[in-house]
Amino acid sequence: MDGAAFDARVRRLAAATVGRRGALAWLGAIPAVFAGEVAASSCQKSGKQCGNGKKCCDGLTCCSGKCVNITNNTANCGKCNTSCANGYGCCSGKCTQLSSNEKNCGSCGTVCSSGKTCCNGACVNLTSSSTN
Fold it and tell me: Residues near 77 by Cβ (< 8 Å), separated by ≥ 6?
């Protein structure tokens, strides 16, 4: 049912000009209205099995039979079976060294503020730090 037909049914129901048959017809349309939500909820979420007719939800990729987010999964970074080395994180689908990256310092998305440098995964001010 398209939006215009749904709106017309709602207006008729609200105007109380709908008889018993009309109300039953309107109620029968409810599953069609929510069909999109039902389809979305039947997709496989992160970590769940996929393949053999089971599809991953939007934003996830089926890698080795499991739904994963290839933008932040260190075992499947950017594409299936692309692992990041030890000390690297998967940031926006790219293996990124977290110990010295000012835009991903210690974890993806942690940006060092002006005047600070990423040192061993922490944003530090090199002019005032006694340990760096």
Answer: 70, 83, 84, 90, 93, 94, 95
